[in-house]
């Protein structure tokens, strides 16, 4: 599935949540989507837990 299709589905989910559930539901869906995105990146191996705790000057890339 392409990134454009994934973005479209995420946008539609946020739109439905905002329309039917209000702004609170919109924020909840957006926050859970962000958590799911980060968890997916961890599972794919693109992120490591230390990436969030390292300082800016201590980049190992």
From TrEMBL:
The lineage of its organism: Bacteria, Bacillati, Actinomycetota, Actinomycetes, Kitasatosporales. The chain crosses the membrane at residues 12-39. Keywords: Membrane, Transmembrane, Transmembrane helix. The keyword Transmembrane helix applies. It comes from Streptomyces alfalfae. This is DUF2273 domain-containing protein. It comes from the Bacteria.
């Amino acid at each position: 599935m392409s990134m454009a299709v994934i973005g479209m589905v995420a946008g539609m989910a946020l739109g439905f949540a905002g329309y039917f559930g209000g702004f609170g539901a919109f924020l909840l869906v957006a926050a859970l989507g962000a958590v799911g995105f980060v968890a997916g990146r961890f599972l794919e191996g693109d992120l490591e837990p230390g990436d969030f705790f390292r300082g800016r000057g201590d980049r190992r890339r």
